[in-house]
Design the sequence.
């Protein structure tokens, strides 16, 4: 692909690369800029502050669920899921605090299938991906996980919630 007319993009890329050079531990392994969320960062987007976006992670993928704030906002039925990776809760259809974790150890085949269905048909279909949890992008020792692939959202369209 030619870079004609891509001057602004080139500058953006240069700025991103310069930032990555300065902070080597934040350099995303993928070419596209990828936002990495630590647990404390994700916890800030828990729907408690009016006007603040609401984020929810499933399978290490951070979704902006602000458009569904009647489900995920303060006092809403699924507010317990937001501001964290709630993969297990989504798999088990559970809001039990013990299930609001990334950990999927011991889930049944049905629960894992339900997780994938919900991940693809609800979250990926309805909500934009804003980044990934550090657990999804980094190895245990904090080095970039070279296997990391950003999720594609080819069928993404913001479906009207109302």
Sequence:
């Amino acid at each position: 692909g030619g870079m004609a007319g891509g001057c602004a993009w080139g500058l953006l890329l240069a700025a991103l690369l310069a930032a990555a050079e300065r902070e080597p531990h934040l350099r995303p392994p993928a070419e596209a800029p990828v936002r990495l969320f630590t647990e404390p960062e994700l916890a800030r987007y828990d729907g408690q502050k009016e006007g603040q976006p609401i984020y929810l992670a499933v399978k290490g993928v951070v979704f902006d669920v602000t458009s569904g704030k009647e489900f995920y906002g303060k006092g809403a039925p699924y507010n317990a899921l937001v501001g964290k990776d709630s993969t297990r809760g989504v798999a088990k259809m559970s809001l039990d605090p013990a299930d609001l974790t990334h950990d999927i150890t011991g889930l049944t085949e049905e629960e894992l299938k339900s997780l994938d269905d919900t991940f693809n048909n609800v979250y990926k279909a309805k909500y934009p991906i804003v980044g990934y949890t550090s657990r999804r992008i980094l190895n245990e020792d904090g080095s970039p996980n070279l296997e990391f692939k950003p999720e594609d959202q080819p069928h993404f369209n913001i479906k009207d919630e109302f």
